[in-house]
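Need tokens for this chain, all 146 residues.
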Amino acid sequence: MERSFGNILSELRHSRGLSQRKLAADLHISQALLSHYENGTREPGLPFVCRVCDYFSVSADFILGRSDDENSGCCAAAAVTELTRALSEAGDTDVRKAALDYVDGAARKMTAYLTYHDDLLLAEEAAAMSEAELRVVRLCSHKRDL
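Here are the structure tokens for all 146 residues:
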């Protein structure tokens, strides 16, 4: 039997000991809509699928039934968390701040793309990322030249 989004969502909810009411409140939807998603009578949009992935810390491949591994594929939230941790341990505070600005910009750009579909916002976030990346390169080049 092929696993569907609704079945997997229900399994995740049960495995975490969550009621439909609690999960629906946490995901900012009605309990009735959650029930429709779990029963397969309604299909979720991409922003909701992303919220579910973030909430349960699973990959989109897993929640969509494309993989049995909860962490298969790219899990952006985990990657950003790991990169932020590594950068926080960097010795040079200027480089660390510039690199963290870049990571924050990447996260904002992903959110803008997945949630708002606003071309101007995407361009602004891309520009902010480019500025932060340029600061990192300049700082690293300057440190190397010293």
